Amino acid sequence: MVNKKNYSLFTATAGSHCTGITLITLIIAIILLLILAGVTLHFTLGENGILKNAEIAGNKYKEEEQKEKNALDEMYSKILVADGSKVTLTMEQLDEYIDRRIEEKSANKANIIATSSKTYETNSTSDGTKIDFENATGDIKNKFILENGNIKIGAGVKRVLVTGFINAKSNEVNRGLQMFIFKNNDEMISTDFTRAYIINAICNLSTQSVIINVKEGDYVKVVVNPWNGEGTFSNCNLMLYEL
């Protein structure tokens, strides 16, 4: 009996001792979790926390992006395209710059389409025929003047794109006709040639489009060398576009 009682007391004491260690461990674990939770919240939501730093970084990125855009705008506003200038741009920046320059320049550029309603007759003995333009349309802006059947260059124009067009008919097969565009009297700037393979068929003839330098007082005219035989040409057009 004595041994049994002692055994029971030993067992109870041992059981009580084990239970005490488990509760202390649980309390310590809870305390540690609370501490970790507090630290986590501090680093996440605190003044210098992750979310705050992320917000600051996002705002700084937007500020730097805007600064870069402003710098590009300033560069575009000051950039000059001239002999000897060297500018390094990406293809995207170059495309954007070109588009802006085109928009800016196009707003103030002039153009003219001079026409003649006359039908010109030619034969194998006639010399080159000068076309006398009678009418002018387009956004001229007082930069182009129709004078003596030619287009005269006005003030402020430095470069132009030039092209011409006529309709021609030959009374004979396999005859040729050539169209010339001149600056002033003797500077030939563009030409083209057509040949008739069918009698009285309309041949459309247009010169090559060219870009030339001009100054105030220059003029542009058109001369047609006739068919090597009888024929006509009409619907004459001369077009200039300021660049």
If you had to describe this structure to a student in words, what would you say it looks like?
The chain is an alpha+beta fold and 243 residues long. The protein is built from three helices and 13 strands, in the order H-H-H-E-E-E-E-E-E-E-E-E-E-E-E-E. It has helices at 2-45, 50-78, 91-106; strands at residues 111-116, 120-122, 129-130, 135-137, 144-147, 150-153, 159-170, 175-183, 187-196, 203-206, 210-213, 219-225, 231-242. The longest helix has 44 residues, at 2-45. The radius of gyration is 44 Å and the shape is rod-shaped. The N and C termini lie far apart (123 Å). Mean pLDDT is 78; it is low at 1-19.
List the defining traits of the structure above.
single chain; 243 residues; alpha+beta; Jelly Rolls; 2 domains; seven-stranded antiparallel sheet; six-stranded antiparallel sheet; 3 helices; disordered N terminus
